[in-house]
Amino acid sequence: MGRFLNSSSTGEVCLDGLSARRARSCFDWRVSMLRESCAADALLGEARRQIVRLTPVEAHERQLAGAMIVDIRSESARERHGVVPGSVHVPRTVLEWRLDPASPWTNPHVNLERAAPILLCDHGWSSSLAASTLRRLGHEGIGDVIGGFEVWRADGLPVVHVEPKVLEPHELPGMAPPDGLPEPRRPGAEQRAHWEAALRERPDRYGVGASEPARAVLEPLRSVGARDLLELGSGQGRDALFFAQEGLVVTAADFAPVALATIAEKARTAGVLDRIVVVECDVRQTLPFPDQSFDACYSHMLFCMALGEPQLHSLAAEVWRTLRPGGLCIYTARTSLDPDYGRGISLGGDLYELDGFVVHFFPQDLVERIAAGSSGISFELVDVEEFEEGGLPRRLIRVTMRRPK
Fold first, then answer.
1. What is the 8-class DSSP label of residue 208?
2. Residue 233, by phi and psi: left (phi above 0), alpha (psi -120 to 50) or beta?
3. Rounded to 5 degrees, what are φ and ψ at 39?
4. Mean of the pLDDT values across residues 174-190?
5. pLDDT in tens, 217-234
6. DSSP three-state, residue 332
7. Which of 16, 161, 253, 374 could disulfide-link 2, Cβ–Cβ 3.0 to 4.6 Å?
8. Long-range contacts of 367-373, Cβ-Cβ distance < 8 Å, separation of 24 or more
């Protein structure tokens, strides 16, 4: 702090040699700067009301589901602190041109049709302003990462260090492919090959009789007069076979061809091939069935596989679409009370890789969010029942939802 000294010959009081007139000028300048700062804060607030703000974990889940993270930090910050594997670097100075679908200089490695991009800066400030600008270019649903790279790294999410890129004279900034990996790591894609190998090695890996959850849901299915049943994630078919033997017409869907071949052979041997249809199906994509095709949908531990929350919402909406009014969706999932929760490799968002298999451990509020849905697509949450299975034992829930009539 300055201290008062003496009066100058002009009669102005001096502050450490600075005249009061000059001090007043400095004060006015600082007030002006404060006003500018407040205006910037208002601009930032307005920008954030127009975009989707994601925690680092949520952004990571969306990246695993196929969204592209666009890193707008400086080269020096990226070299010093590292980068998000699979992200694309587009400097802020050329961002609009690289992400404008109509621009001849669009970055070819950013798929603008697959999912809205997610912007990442150092601390989550400039990314909000930049996302708001891109929204005016037509990027509905664009988001940014709350807290930026600093919080991403503090949350223990994946970070890699890459060699700084020196552009050739003919190269444009912001046109490079993803950093650190050829593409973002997608556990769901890896799981397909892993399940194929596991099921091929042990054709009866999960037993030959119906699971207890399948036996438990038979009465609820009969109570609503269900006839056409969709089973998602049928595996080796022990539950599909049980339902068919109980008189239901079962569409057994799985993403592993070896599993579907096993189901077909078991159905042929049991004499119920006329009541089982096998369909290769990846639940991360649109289900290959017409609207209102089924009376009920059943799945045992499919919802708790390598599916982040955005994918679970998409799956629930697809199930809703394929169910007839009043139809039931009954699924089981491992919970965050399970002894395995927190073990293995954390993938963020309550997903863990255990012995090569990815498990999404459900908290109670996730069940409620899935049922609530969005855009007018919601289920009535009928029942949530806890139970145990296996030697650990695994802690699971059986969730019953109904499409409104």
1. S
2. left
3. -65, -40
4. 54
5. 999 999 999 999 999 999
6. strand
7. 16
8. 367/333, 367/397, 367/399, 369/309, 369/313, 370/303, 370/312, 370/313, 370/316, 370/401, 371/316, 371/399, 371/401, 373/313, 373/316, 373/317, 373/320
Rounded distance between C-alpha atoms, residue 328 and residue 403, angstroms? 6
Cα 174 from chain centroid (whole Å) = 25
- Give alpha helix (H) positions in 49-171: 56-64, 75-81, 95-98, 126-135, 148-154
Q: Each residue of 160-170: b (16+ CB within 10 Å) or e?
A: eeeeeeeeeee
Q: What phi and psi, each to the nearest 5 degrees, are found at residue 9?
A: -65, -20
Mind listing the pLDDT tens digit for each residue in 280-296? 999 988 999 999 999 99
CA 359 to chain centre: 14
Tokens of 115: 């999912």
Other CB atoms within 10 Å distance of the CB of residue 145: 30
Q: Tokens for 340, please give them.
A: 């395995």
Query: Using CA atoms, how far apart are residues 224 and 353, in angstroms rounded to an integer?
Result: 37
Q: Please report, in angstroms and rounded to a whole number, the separation of the first and last CA atoms in the chain.
A: 73
Which secondary structure element, helix H or strand E, spans residue 39, and what is its range? helix 20-48
* Token couple for 308: 């982040």
